[in-house]
Specification:
The complex is a heterodimer of chains A (about 100) and B (about 190). Chain A has four helices and no strands. Chain A is mainly alpha-helical and about 100 residues long. Chain A has one domain. In chain A, helix 1 crosses helix 3 and helix 2 crosses helix 3. The N and C termini of chain A lie far apart (about 50 Å). With about 190 residues, chain B is mainly alpha-helical. In chain B, about 65% of the residues lie in helices and about 0% in strands. Chain B has ten helices and no strands. Chain B is globular and about 50 Å long. The chains are: A mainly alpha (about 100), B mainly alpha (about 190). The interface between A and B is large, with 53 and 57 residues.
Chain lengths: ~100, ~190
Amino acid sequence: MRTSLNSIQETERFLSGAMAPGERLLYRAKLLLDRTLFLDTALQSLVYRIIVAYGRKRKRAELEALHRSLFNNPEKVTFRQTIENIFDHGNETTR
Amino acid sequence: MNAAMIDTLTRVYPGKVTAPIQSVSFESLYEAAFPAVARFVSKQGGTFTDAKDVFHDAMIIWYEKHRDGFTAQTADEAYILGIAKHLWIRKFNRNKSSVSLDAVEMLIDIPANDLHSEVHINQLVRYLERAGRRCLDLLVAFYYEKMPMRTIRERFQYGSERSATVQKFKCLEKVREEVRKNSLSYEDFIE
């Protein structure tokens, strides 16, 4: 693996808590002294948050598609009516 | 930078694969769990859309707990209703006593942050999308779905787990460089 990938892997080991205590202490000291390493680590930490946000966005889209399919599938009429009956006093459509 | 900032960075790692994840039938769970959530929201004066939104958020929280190996002490649909009640209390700043929670529901823990609150992060998702479909799928499979590397190797047809791991780091690097290129300032990615 090339150097930059090794460095990403090392940062991941730090961020995920996989480092042994001594190694972790050394990495923390380097972070305090090396601004480039600190910025790379901060960026990588941000990338993990972006991936989680994207994973949730996908899951939400999956649920929306499932919702549409359940409310438009003629075989699921009983389910749809159950929900419609709950909101039958409101004017809002359940589609 | 200081030690507190370093501690903040280490709190966001999505976590490791804890156990083989059982496949989940979202469809059957949707059918089983949505009516009770809809009844609860309707009784609270909410609309159908409110019910759908709170239910989808509850399903995502439930999925993430299930993925991390959590087993509820009650049926999944009852647990999802409990999550939905907590989300409702938070969303509308209701007093907990205004919503009836049973003993199991009282103990339900939901993520501290609202799933939609990270607006800034959601805006950055476009950088992830620039890394290409295959990278996106690989990163989500590993870091969000927390699939074991063996499963990833098979699904993405890599020759070995080592190749899959190297590819994962290449994708991570691609996204990191996209974010770096487009970050306006240091404050953009340090909170």
